[in-house]
């Protein structure tokens, strides 16, 4: 069974059609990298998966649950999808450990002791065991983003969504975040990653989507599409990002 299924999805903002009749399936363990020009609909594509945006036509099924389901089903669906944003979005008044514990305690009903143990393990996994009592303001951008990844993993999602997770970081801090994402991928997590990091797409991605004007213009193997772009649009795009 696919983890994500888009069925003829149309998303509009007013008159602006941002997702234009998209159908596709994402299977377990796929690492789908999404690229495309600014405004092509990449963030909207991700945000529709965990119902941060609502769609006008079609359906999206996530782990068997429809984005058009009842409020209770939508809450359950959201717990299947961990999301990491460009701007980290950590709670500034909570420590790294408390940020990671928050979801399990408040949305999964896990008791604090167990949540703390699991949060410590996750922070160790992203290399931040020694920083767990620091507040976001005391951490570098790369460290904050690694906390954000640990926080998303803490709810034990079936799927991880990343929206340009390294775009706000200085180049020297990107690597540590990409490394953690690679580790997560290698553990078999299903991932959808919007990024301009073509090296990551090539090395870690199992599939590349090129979005253009609200459509999936290309869908294939990263190495093939990047080495041998089949369309002028993709060639033009790649010249701008690489
Ligand atoms: P990308 O992430 O590829 O840059 P987005 O998904 O953010 O693209 O945006 C796609 C289009 O949808 C753009 O034309 C953008 O202006 C529009 N859009 C995005 N979010 C909103 C919103 N909340 N309200 C109105 N228009 C929006
Ligand atoms: Mg975007």
From TrEMBL:
Keyword Ion transport applies: no
ABC transporter domain: residues covered: 4-238
Superkingdom of origin: Bacteria
InterPro entries for this protein: AAA+_ATPase (IPR003593), ABC_ATPase_HisP-typ (IPR030679), ABC_transporter-like_ATP-bd (IPR003439), ABC_transporter-like_CS (IPR017871), MetN_ABC_transporter-like (IPR050086), P-loop_NTPase (IPR027417)
Key words, A-Z: ATP-binding, Cell membrane, Membrane, Nucleotide-binding, Transport
GO molecular function: ATP binding
Keyword Nucleotide-binding: yes
Signal peptide boundaries: none
Family: Belongs to the ABC transporter superfamily.
Protein name as it appears in the record: Glutamine ABC transporter ATP-binding protein GlnQ
Organism of derivation: Yanghanlia caeni
């Amino acid at each position: 069974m696919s983890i994500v299924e888009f069925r003829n999805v149309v998303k509009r903002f007013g008159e602006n059609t941002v997702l234009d009749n998209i159908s596709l399936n994402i299977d377990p363990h796929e690492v789908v990298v999404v690229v495309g020009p600014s405004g092509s609909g990449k963030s909207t594509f991700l945000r529709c998966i965990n119902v941060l945006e609502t769609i006008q036509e079609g359906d999206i099924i996530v782990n068997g649950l429809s984005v058009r389901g009842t409020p209770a089903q939508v809450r359950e669906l959201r717990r299947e999808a961990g999301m990491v944003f460009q701007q980290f979005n950590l709670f500034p008044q909570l420590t790294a450990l408390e940020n990671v514990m928050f979801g399990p305690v408040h949305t999964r009903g896990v008791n604090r002791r167990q949540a703390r143990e699991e949060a410590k393990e996750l922070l160790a996994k992203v290399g931040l065991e020694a920083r767990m009592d620091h507040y976001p303001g005391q951490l570098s951008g790369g460290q904050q983003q690694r906390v954000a990844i640990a926080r998303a993993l803490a709810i034990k999602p079936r799927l991880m969504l990343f929206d340009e997770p390294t775009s706000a970081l200085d180049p020297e801090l990107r690597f540590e975040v990409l490394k953690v994402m690679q580790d997560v991928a290698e553990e078999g997590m299903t991932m959808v990653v919007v990024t301009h990091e073509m090296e990551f797409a090539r090395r870690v991605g199992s599939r590349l989507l090129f979005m253009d004007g609200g459509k999936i213009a290309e869908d294939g193997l990263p190495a093939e599409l990047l080495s041998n772009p089949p369309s002028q649009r993709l060639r033009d795009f790649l010249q701008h990002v690489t």
